[in-house]
Amino acid sequence: MVNIFDVAKLANVSIATVSRVTSNKEGVNEKTRASVIEAMDKLGYRPNTAARTLRMAKSNIIIVLMLNIKNSFYSEYIRGLEEVARESGYFLLIGSTNGDKEKENNYLELIQDSRVDGVILTTAGIMDEKAVQKINENSPTVLTFDYVLDPHIPSISIDNESASRKITNHLISLGHERIAHITGHMERIQSQTRLNGYKQALSQHNLEINESLIQEGGYLFEDGYRAASKLLSFDQPPTAIYGGNDSLAIGALKAIHEAGLRVPEDVALVGFDDLDIAHYTTPSLTTIHQPRYEIGKRAMTLLLQKINKETISKSHIILEDELIIRESCGHKLTMK
């Protein structure tokens, strides 16, 4: 059965543009409008006007927009979101941008046109602050794992800066001075605040902040692998590597092993997030625990309050993190 996605693909436009044409809305130039109509005719697509009318009313659908759905970090978070949503009769529609600006714009258009009941964003870095505010004007919005300084956009996260400072201080307490940091994507506030915490810890101990030891990674194993391989090629490689998330740290672990080095005897290693896999790496990974399930539940509760126009007493919520000390940092070596 032909659907709106087929039309968008044939016309080489976004599904939001097809929706605008079928709804006879402004904002589509005549050439594009003609291409969409031609694609509809070729495919025999006829928009469901009854469904469109229903979309103008309550949809019971909440869009969850995230950076990269491949990251296993989100599994517990989504479970928390869904548990609260289903109890209130809502369903989740999950979108992943992979950091692609065109995808981000397409989702923004879709959110504006589809009249979803609410939106949860997993990062302010997916879109700039103005775009986040524009989404909030169309649908109630809650931000998770990041924040924007807007009282109308509730957020829930941990204190990324202090958590990053904490885990860097832990490495310093074990005697490390040449500590490298592999960041996430630096357009994200989360990555910026974790970098700030790392730098603060070094400064507090009068240690040099060596910019060459700060490498931008991302959120995938291969990002950590590439960055760590580069760090280990230096004449003076780091004695410790702090991955800005567990996926980066695990990718770095592979690079360290392939370089013929041992963790933690030759290079100490820590991560951030406490993914389930962090228990099972060899050695097991020292990291920062984020209460992802709780963040999901609390975020959905905040969104439902916004949807129901209830008073929100606290718009920005910071939850506790925890330093989880395992084998990879070398803590046990210092205890001998």
What can you see in these coordinates?
With 336 residues, the protein is of the alpha/beta class. Among the domains are: 1-57, 434 Repressor (Amino-terminal Domain); 160-290 and 322-335, 3-Layer(aba) Sandwich (Rossmann fold). It is 45% helix and 15% strand. It contains 13 helices and twelve strands. It has a six-stranded parallel β-sheet, sandwiched between helices. Strands 7-6-8-9 form a four-stranded parallel β-sheet, sandwiched between helices. Strands 10-12 form a two-stranded antiparallel ribbon. Helix 11 (246-258) links the parallel strand 8 and strand 9 (268-270). Helix 1 (4-11) packs across helix 3 (30-43), helix 8 packs parallel to helix 9 and helix 10 crosses helix 11 (246-258). The chain is elongated and about 70 Å long. The protein starts with a helix and ends with a helix. The mean pLDDT is 88.
